[in-house]
Write a structure and sequence with these properties.
Shape of chain A: globular
CATH class of chain A: Alpha Beta
Low-confidence stretches of chain A: none
Number of strands of chain A: 17
Strand order of the largest sheet of chain A: 8-7-9-15-10
Strand content of chain A: 15-25%
CATH topology of chain A: Chorismate synthase, AroC fold
Family (chains A, B, C, D): Belongs to the chorismate synthase family.
Keywords (chains A, B, C, D): Amino-acid biosynthesis, Aromatic amino acid biosynthesis, FAD, Flavoprotein, FMN, Lyase, NADP
Subunit structure (chains A, B, C, D): Homotetramer.
Distance between the termini of chain A: 38 Å
Function (chains A, B, C, D): This reaction introduces a second double bond into the aromatic ring system.
CATH superfamily of chain A: Chorismate synthase AroC
Number of domains of chain A: 1
Helix content of chain A: 25-40%
Order of helices and strands of chain A: EEHHEEEEHHHEEHHEHEHEEEEEEEHH
GO molecular function, one term (chains A, B, C, D): chorismate synthase activity
Radius of gyration of chain A: 22 Å
Number of helices of chain A: 11
Mean pLDDT of chain A: 93
Oligomer: homotetramer
Structural class of chain A: alpha+beta
Amino acid sequence: MRLTIAGDSHGKYMIAVLEGIPAGLKIDEEIIRRELFRRRNCYGRGKRMSMEEDAFEIVSGVWGGITTGAPVTILVPNKAGNPVKDVRSVPRPGHIDYAAFVKYKLPDLNVYVERSSARWTVALTAAGALLKSLLREFNIDVLGFVTRLGNVEAKNIPDNFEELRRKRDESAVFCPDPEATEGMISEIDRAKEEGNTLGGKVKVIARGVPAGIGSYSDLFKKLDSKIGSLFFAIPAVKGVVIGSEEMWYGFDYLDEFELEDGRIKRRTNNLGGIEGGITNGEDVWVNVFVKPIPTTGKPLNSVDLRTMEPAKTPYVRSDVTAVPPASVVCEAALAVVISDALLEHLGDGNIDDLKRRFGNENLPRWDDGFWKEYDR
Amino acid sequence: MRLTIAGDSHGKYMIAVLEGIPAGLKIDEEIIRRELFRRRNCYGRGKRMSMEEDAFEIVSGVWGGITTGAPVTILVPNKAGNPVKDVRSVPRPGHIDYAAFVKYKLPDLNVYVERSSARWTVALTAAGALLKSLLREFNIDVLGFVTRLGNVEAKNIPDNFEELRRKRDESAVFCPDPEATEGMISEIDRAKEEGNTLGGKVKVIARGVPAGIGSYSDLFKKLDSKIGSLFFAIPAVKGVVIGSEEMWYGFDYLDEFELEDGRIKRRTNNLGGIEGGITNGEDVWVNVFVKPIPTTGKPLNSVDLRTMEPAKTPYVRSDVTAVPPASVVCEAALAVVISDALLEHLGDGNIDDLKRRFGNENLPRWDDGFWKEYDR
Amino acid sequence: MRLTIAGDSHGKYMIAVLEGIPAGLKIDEEIIRRELFRRRNCYGRGKRMSMEEDAFEIVSGVWGGITTGAPVTILVPNKAGNPVKDVRSVPRPGHIDYAAFVKYKLPDLNVYVERSSARWTVALTAAGALLKSLLREFNIDVLGFVTRLGNVEAKNIPDNFEELRRKRDESAVFCPDPEATEGMISEIDRAKEEGNTLGGKVKVIARGVPAGIGSYSDLFKKLDSKIGSLFFAIPAVKGVVIGSEEMWYGFDYLDEFELEDGRIKRRTNNLGGIEGGITNGEDVWVNVFVKPIPTTGKPLNSVDLRTMEPAKTPYVRSDVTAVPPASVVCEAALAVVISDALLEHLGDGNIDDLKRRFGNENLPRWDDGFWKEYDR
Amino acid sequence: MRLTIAGDSHGKYMIAVLEGIPAGLKIDEEIIRRELFRRRNCYGRGKRMSMEEDAFEIVSGVWGGITTGAPVTILVPNKAGNPVKDVRSVPRPGHIDYAAFVKYKLPDLNVYVERSSARWTVALTAAGALLKSLLREFNIDVLGFVTRLGNVEAKNIPDNFEELRRKRDESAVFCPDPEATEGMISEIDRAKEEGNTLGGKVKVIARGVPAGIGSYSDLFKKLDSKIGSLFFAIPAVKGVVIGSEEMWYGFDYLDEFELEDGRIKRRTNNLGGIEGGITNGEDVWVNVFVKPIPTTGKPLNSVDLRTMEPAKTPYVRSDVTAVPPASVVCEAALAVVISDALLEHLGDGNIDDLKRRFGNENLPRWDDGFWKEYDR
């Protein structure tokens, strides 16, 4: 599977193309609508958001609601037209402005924001949401939520997946801990008042991923590598930890095996469901560090690149934090990565064939006869 | 540039192939020798290490010490022959054993360790060390060191690069803080006694990387994405944070601009030298979370996959920690990533041409005439 | 550079995404308009063509007519709406119908034509035409024309490029030999009457390509491999020969060197401008074998896949031949391949930098000082 | 699956790395030995050949004769040591000499031949031969032979595959037509006397390839595109035609369907077994144009790049023709392409799982229930 994302934040469309989707898959557009809505509607988002309805259109690869095996293209129209703006020459710390100017050398910083703003994550969100229709066929569920905002950390995170989802959905900041939610809302209010912006952390979990997904052949097909590759493409993401961040002592960290009704279980899941680049049947979970938005409400020190004189960053209306929407985007990203690795494992063709392949291949027993001709 | 790594830990060779290296580059084999030696010689490494001399041979792409533009192949012989071993059927928590058995279904866990052991990082180390001969031509320097081992954290890290390197090299665990080094050695001794293993953290810095390296075109050519992709392929790596982990408030985190002698400077470098996927001229720095080695000195709970009865993991002689060598490997990984992005920026051909291209393209001034035909 | 093409022939848009285009390039939309018109307007095209105006829109990566370095997306709307059609279960020989049904297993052959019809080549044509704005900056010109249709072969092909273009453009079938053009028109008329379809051959030339483009590092970066990879993705293409098809004797075939005013010249160009995967400074030229359209005007023998009874292929209004439009498509394909290889050579960033790099690197002299430190 | 090939013709080894091979596959080294022998031993090969024994070693990814899922590395030692040679500054027409000098700018043409000589095809031959152990599991057989040498064309080519193989193997030039073989041997003798070299044509057939292999999703996953990509990477290959070269009239060319015992058959196979980028169940067959060797026995006109004076190409002992060994190399290339596409279709893991997947998925019937929820 290959995902291509294009689009400028004030262009006509954001575009996602998914190649390698099996044929015969029924796409539930409601999921896409819901995830785009979630990405847009959370506490702390600014005015631009409400100008965009995040309608979307699937313009290829789907016929009567069913995939055809051809590339699937999703277009998300940008509602906010491109206002005539003055040339901007004062770069904002934390944004691509300066770095892109040095590389691309076009003398208007407005240009670079078109590609590098978080607007393109709407296309990633749509692509991930579309792939949930695929994951559902294999009983794989993906869920993302906020675990930290500014200095407020979530403490009580339900273990039960449905409760976790419900509590998250009840939170204006997608944090399943109601008490922390209140603290986070206060953080947002205070930051807004100060003109400050907030970073934080997000956790994403994939439940139901079978053991054996990923690879140790090509280094870049290791599931960890795929996670690193896509998550670090998300603008606000500056850090990714797979599984527990507390990894100081082997005895505390390594997930021992036990048997439960004759089946293998783990007591803990510090490793995040991946061992050696391949899933081990436990939840795949990822912690993501999300940086504060670079567009602050009070000016920061900068330099006017035109005059090479000190200058202050301009005041631009913006969100206070990208952490809650980042939880939606990261959920989508994990859906993309798991789908990609799952399809690499199962091959291509018709979804019913892939499901049959999947169904026929339960966990191996030691004496299954594999490698039968091998003589040591 | 493309890096391919192959080799089994008890096979004849570990193999690294680098495609896309410019012609005419003088390779300093001494660097490779030194880095392989560093990877092998640090406190806490077990006996296997001393059995390997990490000789290496460059068998293609270099003629008389100069690259030819053809793929460069490095072979690192494995000295430790493959001992006859019994079939192993008890998976070790934290290792690929169980996950790979489910995927590949060959009934001997010894098989999977061949590819998934950290032994292949010797090839990555060699490849990164070779690329230092490239980076040197552009005055780019890469340095990695240990910042945490078990519960001991480094506090005093010199800002001066040469002092940093010197202090790191004086430390048996590659930690530039002498006091922390002592603590870390104690941690290792204690862990060894207990049969425990240690995780920790590593920091890698690339100094001298020019602004403008990376891209915002293809998502996966963003420098962050490249870092995520390669670092997460390293067996022991479970987490990567680019720049500071303290990213909770915009005012504290965003690196403001200032002018110094008419040149743009930053007061801080929390962003780790990358904005929007492109370097901004500051040091690129990365924190890496390294998990404890899964082969503990005391048995862990497991299951015998042959009998499906509870079992204990076998005692295998092993290192206590992979953190110090991981600092060498991560240094190599950053050298690979920076080289790759630099070559994408500069194109291919002869190194002298690339250097001329590089030299001719200083930072743009606003009125440089780029985009001159554009009429707003 | 990476080209992604999506779109169903009756969907809303055909989509081309180009990643890795340098910033600051002025796009001449007139070229795109012209090439789309040419693809559509030639003798022998059927009715569907006139229903499509091949309007197009560049919806990303271009700001005020100038590229920004972000992915460039071109949308070409499909004018012909999707008529309600009966399920089709009789596969046409030569079309994807049967092969795709076996793979994707959706019981309506209409589905597969959506992706596999030649309609997607409109997106390739647009992408190639857009890249002509890039090639123009480097004085590279690409030209395609018909050399054979049915049994009629072109004999008199002008050597002068401008004359060649003019004569081609005067021909209703894009054949620069006026006499052959007449014969080809007769072939088309006769075939139409008989319900037959016509194959043929196309020649594409890239003039002005500097020596040194391509690579011998990665096998798949050899220019020949890139040509094979893209040309064979074009639906009607079944054969590709680089340079002369008459390659039986070394003495006749190999292009000897001579000096003209102190510069190296070749007497002949049988090798098609590529030696060892790298351009040699002569014209790059490619012969393409184009198969007859699988939708014939008289029924062919087939099988109804629903009943597994013998059946005849349905009558569907169609073109008689794809050879003239294929000459437009192949011209675009060569523009894509040359652009891709040129950008790999020159790197990325701003077009003016790339032009300076290009300008600074004339042909090497033997004593240029490259490899100066090498001591044999 | 990904194939990487490295190695210099006078370096220690030629290297092939295959990533993505399933685990549990028994490798028959005898096939590799046989194909390397065939590549080396045919009429018209020069002296260098006999100096090489083409021993080979599989140094990774295989354990006790069985693949492990890890990358498979094959090393083929180069027996001919690197003789001390004078600097060479006179480029040979048809070889990479001049083009590579312009690109890489190293002042010794001997350098470029290291990578660009046909010597690396020994690694491709070994890789393809190894993959025959995979194809055999799916009853797929690949066969290549010479159809033209100089002006002599094969006429009588047996349709029966075993007879075809036998006759080919009896021919000193791998041409299954005994009469043509004689003519070809005369061509070689005459060419040798004249110092001339010979081009020709090769045909490669894959029998037993199931319908449904390939894809119409990503353009570059079409089977035709994969064939073009790999075949045009082979040094001597200048042309590739899939199926019949006679493609002028639809009625003559398109392969009509018929029923035989209730199964779908074709009367002809002009399309070469691929429709729309996907196999249709017929033999996949490819014609390959092979150029004459650029090292002629009598000097050609050239230029001394050092002095920029006219010069003659040096006399170097060489083969008269690469066509017979090219038939071996192209057979290997088709084995690689078909394996790659087959594995993309079937996914990864253990070979026995892949065989079960394969076995469970016979040709679909129209009413198989795929796409069952679709409501037009």
